[in-house]
Structure formats: C-alpha cells, structure tokens
Amino acid sequence: MSVSSTGFLPKSILAAPTTSTATLTPKPAQTAEQKFLEYAKMTPAERMHAQMLAELGVTEDQFKAMSPADQQKIEDKIRDMIKKQVDNGSKKRAGLITDKSV
C-alpha cells in the first residue's frame, strides 16, 4: 500500500530550500521533521496562503522580496483563486443533503 502526500503539504514546504537573492548566506538544510513542524505551526490562513503561492510557483522568500505592488498583484491572484474554489465548491454541494426520515 502506498501513501501519497499530494495536496497535504504545499510544494514549497516539501521542496529543498533555495537561496534567496535577498540574502547571501544559504539556509541550513531542514529535516523532514523540521519542515513538518514549521507547517504544523502555521495557521489555516497561512497554510492556504502557502498553498496558493506554491500553485503560482512563488516561494515565501520570493514573495517577501517583491515590491508592494507586485505583492498586491499576487494577493489579487490568490483572492481570485479562492473565489473560484468557493464558487466551484458551492455548485458541487447542490442536492447532497437528503431527508431520509420520510
């Protein structure tokens, strides 16, 4: 039996750490335990933000290094992605509730 973690952790958390152009010192390599604990300490909003950034192919370090205008563009894209998910999710739920007491 194989277990897949796809969708559980954002790709940015699972990916090997990359050096940022903003810092000259490389980050020390993280163990799987450290990556998991870092993810577990995130709030649900932070997890969603990290997941959406990963879907856009942007790391948290890259996001922080962006200008405020570029960050706003990314935030707008994330907002649109969330709206689409909500719209798609509400459409799928129609008719799922059934009264079996009759």
Brief sketch in words of this structure:
The protein is an all-alpha fold.
Describe this structure in words.
This protein has helices at residues 11-14, 32-40, 44-56, 60-65, 68-92. The chain is flat and about 70 Å long. It has a domain at 31-92. It is mainly alpha-helical.
Structural classification: mainly alpha
Average pLDDT score: 77
- How many DSSP-defined strands? 0
Any idea what the shape is?
Answer: flat
As a percent range, the share of strand residues is under 5%
Low-confidence stretches: 1-6
Largest sheet: none
- Percent helix: 55-70%
Q: Alpha-carbon distance between the termini?
A: 42 Å
Radius of gyration: 18 Å
Q: What's the order of the H and E elements?
A: HHHHH
| Total helical elements | 5
Task: Reconstruct the topology from this structure.
Blueprint: H1 11-14, H2 32-40, H3 44-56, H4 60-65, H5 68-92
Question: Notable features of this structure?
Answer:
56% helix; 102 residues; single chain; mainly alpha
